[in-house]
Amino acid sequence: MDTTRIEMVMEQIRRRIAGRSLLPGSKLPSVRAHAKTSGVSVSTVVEAYDRLVAEGVVLSRPGSGFYVATQTAPLLLSEVGPKLDRAIDPFWVSRQSLEATDNTEKPGCGWLPPDWLPEAGLRRGLRALSRASGIALAEYGSPLGLPPLRQLITRRMAEKGIEAPPDQVILTESGTQAIDLLCRYLIDPGDTVLLDDPCYFNFQALLRAHRVQVVSVPYTPNGPDIEVFASVLAEHRPRLYITNSAVHNPTGATLSPVIAHRVLMLAEQHGLTIVEDDIFADFEHVPGPRLAAFDGLNRVIHIGSFSKTLSASARCGFIAAKKDWIDGIVDLKIATTFGGGRLNAELVLSVLSDGGHRKYLEGLRMRLARARHEVGAKLREIGIVPLLEPQAGMFLWCRVPGPRSSAQVARAALVDGVVLAPGNAFSPAQTAGDLMRFNVSQIGNSRVFETIQRSLSQSCSGDR
Amino acid sequence: MDTTRIEMVMEQIRRRIAGRSLLPGSKLPSVRAHAKTSGVSVSTVVEAYDRLVAEGVVLSRPGSGFYVATQTAPLLLSEVGPKLDRAIDPFWVSRQSLEATDNTEKPGCGWLPPDWLPEAGLRRGLRALSRASGIALAEYGSPLGLPPLRQLITRRMAEKGIEAPPDQVILTESGTQAIDLLCRYLIDPGDTVLLDDPCYFNFQALLRAHRVQVVSVPYTPNGPDIEVFASVLAEHRPRLYITNSAVHNPTGATLSPVIAHRVLMLAEQHGLTIVEDDIFADFEHVPGPRLAAFDGLNRVIHIGSFSKTLSASARCGFIAAKKDWIDGIVDLKIATTFGGGRLNAELVLSVLSDGGHRKYLEGLRMRLARARHEVGAKLREIGIVPLLEPQAGMFLWCRVPGPRSSAQVARAALVDGVVLAPGNAFSPAQTAGDLMRFNVSQIGNSRVFETIQRSLSQSCSGDR
């Protein structure tokens, strides 16, 4: 059928509605009448009317005809532009980053720009999916999730020394959902949970939803400060510790084998369970120590996702845990999300199985290494100093020169359309007022540096 | 590149590993050597090795070469076949249905077979997505979710008399996740929640995860028994009531305007909030009364999803709620799942905007009407009697003749590879021991009726 003619008919109707020659609630010309006056076929008008129905512009009343819809969608005015008045809390960076419009720069966000991700592989994967079985397109996933993807995850974990057969791997809708399910399974309201200081801000937001107490341990370049770790365990008896081992967010630090061993010894001694969040695993050049590898999934639960190096749009994460816990976690998964997102799992499997994906990852790691070096140098030029030189990943954790706090700098930059990530959003103990996380992949153009530099010497009132 | 040759090389390597002429950990022939001996190009061998790496069969050590992986994936033996020993609880139907293998029939499940769903539309949608912007493929969704899909949902709700502008619509990962978020937002552990008896079994499983007390009200062909409803509200003071208005699961009943009005009056009087789960909306021939339409999203929150008439593989649901509640719910959504599944939302939008989708839905409703009639007749022949004749949907809620309970019948059928849905899985008060839900779209072949008939006169021991 001729698409141009269909669109022409749609446009005619839309104009008549906009020009009020067809009022809300009034009947459209009959299909035959419209075909005659417009000089197009009946089937063209039918298709045009159907599409207008699908758009909600027109309503169909079977046996009667087509009518102009009485409700038209209001503009999404409330969603335009950054909300400048939000408190700087664990939600601040995520809301500002996720709400950012196309002309906002977001060096504060925690993901790569689309053109750093494997777009070609994703497009190939989607084309392959368009030819997949009806089951893949339409049915719920199985309780644990797509078996070949779980097998592949098992093999990828084995490369890092983690032994987890596929029946100990559960697919989830995301890495965040993986941690959420584990909190539901492992902790009760009022329990105490241990976090790193600083740590990924959303851990705090998530734990708030679980109504637990949060305690924290300073994170050093080699892992948690082990003396403080020991005393916090003795004093507060946390049930759970949530941490990143390989590429720590936000510092970029790497856990050392010595600290890993001591953490596990203390966990054993105090009955602590550990969730090791490994979503930055693919950024590593050489696999570092993993708590789950040393521990054999005894006290450690290992989680991951594909949102950092594959796609954040096709959400998919996983949990690897001891066999005894699988059934209980799966029951919770079904109760709270029913079957998982099979389509996303199929797409992730397709991209990961693509022979070119390994090369893409190698290229990405090199690109990130270059960007860390270059962005680090430019930040130093304006007085912002990285606390350490991460071996991998997209983050630089930096000290801002003052006298403005990083929250003040972030607010000032937001007015100019740049989303930054002030340190205290990451700090359960609020010890990072002069620190800030930068995503080296999101800071390519010079306007961003100019805005940051300007923001260093301005401030919004009323802020710490 | 020649795919056949690449696969040939992969097959050669796989055979040598299987035949133990290449042992785990040993080095593969160099790319050049293998190209020479096999008579293929170097690039063919490189691609074959890369794909074997992606499969996890082979490991790459940069600068050194390719090695046989030391771990191979074990078989997923534990996942094969139904688990016959599970208790008949709210998880029974979902686990058995979701775990069912290809040669299992599942008249107990709650979804349509793939060939009843809009496969062609989904395939078109995926092809369109493969050409979409990098942002659609790779980025997180915005906090509320894809704006044009929310606008479309607003227009669809308007057809049912529900006024909810797009900034009062939140996309979620699924209908189940929508209810889960609302429970998190609205209730505390220890609160009391009211359900229909019978009701969708997963409401009970979900509420168990929220540690609340469940009370129930008998569901009549016109809605909840309003006398009992009034006395339960007075006695137990539930904070929340979760129900289906349009096509009630499992009974297929439709809420009447009179009962709707009285439910809302009593809710107002007792400070009750109502979650109206409308995931079967697209099955209706004529829109029935909605609590959210009468109430104007004051005490009622309306939720829906696309898993029943579009795809359960591309998970996507939504919440429509009063403006005051949107920010709090979105904060919880970000804390527990971060950005939403943008890819699924894009696909759903694409299929819904397709001019042919309305015709597909009309055809589906007719097909279901025929199937309800035919399956109902065949069930009556073997003594199974529908309690009412639903005006829409895929379910028949039936009395089994006895003396076996429906749980006994379901266990016996499971042994023969047929998953049924015994009544008490749906009944918070356990009053449905002689009832059973049948999905008329999943009961096409005669083997299923033979198995059911045989199961009526058999039983497994030890069952109620």
From TrEMBL, chains A, B:
Similarity-based family: In the C-terminal section; belongs to the class-I pyridoxal-phosphate-dependent aminotransferase family.
Record keywords, A-Z: DNA-binding, Pyridoxal phosphate, Transcription, Transcription regulation
Taxonomic superkingdom: Bacteria
SUPFAM superfamilies the record matches: PLP-dependent transferases (SSF53383), Winged helix' DNA-binding domain (SSF46785)
Entry GO MF terms: DNA binding; DNA-binding transcription factor activity; pyridoxal phosphate binding
Record SMART domains: HTH_GNTR
Domain HTH gntR-type stretches: 3-71
UniProt-recorded name of the protein: DNA-binding transcriptional MocR family regulator
Coiled coil: none
InterPro entries, A to Z: Aminotransferase_I/II_large, HTH_trans_reg/aminotransferase, PyrdxlP-dep_Trfase, PyrdxlP-dep_Trfase_major, PyrdxlP-dep_Trfase_small, Tscrpt_reg_HTH_GntR, WH-like_DNA-bd_sf, WH_DNA-bd_sf
CDD domains: AAT_like, WHTH_GntR
